[in-house]
Amino acid sequence: MQIIVLIKQVPEMDRVRFDSEKGVIDRKSAGVEINPFDLNALETAVQIREQIGGEITALSMGPGRAEKALREAIARGADRGILLSDKKFAGADTRSTSFTLAQAIKKLAPFDLVIAGEMTVDGDTAQVGPQTAEYLDIPHIAYVTSLDDIEVKNITVTCNIWEGSYRKRLHLPGLITVTKDINFPRLPELRAKMESREAEITRWDYSTFSSLLSPEQIGLKGSPTQVKKITIPPPIEREGQVFSGEELEKAVAALEKICREKQLTGGQS
């Protein structure tokens, strides 16, 4: 089975800082890592390969430093890494990103399955996976929480949407996005990490797709949406009250008052 895993390098969100005045992420304030959900996607691909065989290609779009993420993907089980990197790709929104990734996947055809994390931690849109599938004109299933059955031409999965759990069968070629509940990504072995440092990462720039893409379709020019400002919500301050001893009636009255103010009661007591 030919599997393509979409990988994105993102800031370490537990360390990154936000520029409140400019309303943007200060990407220089923290290191970078593979998007955590993409690790689940890669682990899913490795588990499929272990069952029925195949080849895994890790595909990413980003600056040159994203090669590091692809080498880590190779250390974790990918057979090769391909990086889409060009200044013309910069500033892409989810639509432009999905369109560009789709052209790269077409170039990699034939393929059987594309796997992506459900979302990226620096965007939280959950749009790139499904949009990529639409540009490829292939079926897709989002929010997959388990792989139930794997065949050469079909896979059966369980996905959770809203409050429902659904079992679905996907005819290949197709695309799925996976949640963090699908598996626990294994850590790479030391030997694999050492070997991945020497792995050759294939780079594709705009000229690779010049016959398929126009400058108006990619990057900032091809993006109908733009992030103008990021607003950081103020921290929530919590207050507590302590009642003890003979203050039970007082505590009940105070609790009742709070519930009424918050409209948490359905009627009169």
Structure description:
There is one protein chain. The chain is of the alpha/beta class and 269 residues long. The strands form three sheets. Strands 11-10-9-12-8-1-6-7-13 form a nine-stranded mixed β-sheet, sandwiched between helices. A two-stranded antiparallel sheet has the order 2-5. 34% of the residues are buried. Helices cover 26% and strands 26% of the residues. It is globular and about 75 Å long. The chain has two domains: 216 residues, HUPs (Rossmann fold, 3-Layer(aba) Sandwich); 31 residues, no CATH class.
List the helices and strands and how they pair.
Blueprint: E1 2-7, E2 9-11, E3 17-19, E4 24-26, E5 32-34, H1 36-52, E6 55-61, H2 67-75, E7 80-84, H3 94-108, E8 113-117, H4 128-136, E9 140-150, E10 154-161, E11 164-171, E12 174-178, H5 190-196, E13 201-204, H6 248-261
Parallel strand pairs: 1-6, 1-8, 6-7, 7-13, 8-12, 9-12
Antiparallel strand pairs: 2-5, 3-4, 9-10, 10-11
